[in-house]
Amino acid sequence: MTTIPTYDDIRAIALRLVHERYPSAVAAIIGGSFATGRQTTTSDIDLLLLFDHVDCAWRDTLVAEGRTVELFGHDMATFTYFCKEMDAPGGKVPLAMMVVEGENIVAAGDAYARLHALAHAIETAGPPVLDVENLQRRRYAITTALEDLVDSTHPGEALAVACQLYEALSDLHLRAAGEWSGGGKHLFRRLQTFDAAIAAQLDGALRLVASDLPAGQRAFEQVAAAVLAPVGGPLLEGFTLPAPAHWRA
């Protein structure tokens, strides 16, 4: 039986990797599952490397001592750009969360202090507020998807729509409350932390669609109503979306 590696085991592998291949790194932060205690036997190591300067940010995947490592290389300028200009507009800041949740495993200096302060400031500021048009788009998309789900009699099609609804409802519930969102397992974790009741309802509804379609349809109607109510409810009639003028070209 394969055992789950301890954090100390992983930290030692990461530290040897940094010393051997990236000795100029001014910070090396272990994030992901090992930083939050959710590791499994096959979890990879998420490692953010900070340098005084890089010509361009980079990402690399390698294997160190039999363990897959996901590397993210940045300096302060590229880290700031990626977090604020690339990630934050979409409501997700995984790089900043790596710094907030993770541990720097090399000697901490001024560079790490600046990185840590910036990441915490980004987390605390929260995502951009959803404007009226964005909310309308989301309400409309959820309402039409819910109609597709409720009308469906095909188990495979219904499950595909239910997965779409799960993500849309989870993301809207977080963003409408000014909370950062996430992708995949991180979406579930953020939702569960913010609102365990809604997380449980969505999880239960999705499972029901796979096992008892009529019950799953009713469950999604209930949770969708709860999520949409604070932002204006369902939206169909009256929704309009003009195309940009430059599309004529």
TrEMBL record:
Pfam families per record: NTP_transf_2 (PF01909)
Quote the InterPro entries the UniProt record gives: NT_sf, Polymerase_NTP_transf_dom
Q: What is its EC number?
A: 2.7.7.-
Q: What class of enzyme is it?
A: transferase
Recorded GO terms, molecular function?
nucleotidyltransferase activity
Residue ranges occupied by any Polymerase nucleotidyl transferase domain in the UniProt entry:
18-54
Q: Which UniProt keywords apply?
A: Nucleotidyltransferase, Transferase
| Entry keyword Transferase | yes
- What's this protein's name? Nucleotidyltransferase domain-containing protein
What is the native source organism of this protein? Janthinobacterium aestuarii
